[in-house]
Design goal:
The chain is of the alpha+beta class and 181 residues long. It contains five helices and nine strands. The two termini are 27 Å apart.
Length: 181
């Protein structure tokens, strides 16, 4: 369901939910959304919330020392504007050859991960599918033993700050090509 919603409010709700989990685990938790908090975003707030909760839950789960940092911003790629949310952790990391596997249903980087950390291997595939249904995608960069960053990119269909309207995005194929660039 697409409608206008306050990015700052959605992000504050996510912070409220996830901060306690991080505190219980003893890892730091920082969500920097100052660049996007004053904007209304046109999209599906429930699905964006679900994606963020999945990514942040994983980041906290796989981080024993250090912390989880989330940063939201707007970026332009080939004259198309995107909302970008990076979820970074200082956790166990993922081998480059396993990047694609973590986005497959019921798959994890290796069997020891499911034994130690639990889970079904559905959170990342579902999150990526939701992002793609919204015209975006999720990307991964990681180093074993140093952590991971999952980046959500969603096209800005309309964005408002006060009464100024943002850019309209018309060409879905062009957006998808830019996301993958």
């Amino acid at each position: 369901e697409n409608d206008y919603f306050e990015l700052g409010q959605l992000f504050e709700e996510v912070v409220s939910m996830m901060n306690l989990r991080a505190q219980e685990k003893g890892v730091s938790f920082v969500f920097d959304h100052k660049d996007t908090k004053d904007f209304e975003f046109y999209g599906d707030d429930k699905r964006l919330r679900q994606i963020l909760v999945n990514l942040i839950t994983n980041a906290i789960k796989f981080t024993d020392k250090g912390g989880v940092t989330i940063k939201s911003s707007f970026e332009e790629r080939d004259k198309i504007e995107f909302l970008r949310v990076d979820v970074s952790d200082t956790g166990i990391g993922i081998e480059p050859e396993d990047f694609d596997m973590v986005f497959e249903r019921f798959k994890q980087a290796d069997s020891s991960v499911s034994r130690k950390y639990g889970g079904t291997g559905l959170g990342l595939p579902i999150s990526r599918n939701l992002a793609q249904l919204m015209g975006g995608d999720i990307f991964l960069s990681s180093q074993v033993g140093k952590g991971s960053t999952f980046s959500v990119l969603l096209p800005v269909k309309n964005r408002k700050e006060g009464t100024d309207k943002g850019k309209d995005v018309i060409d879905n194929q062009k957006m998808n090509d830019q996301i993958r660039a």
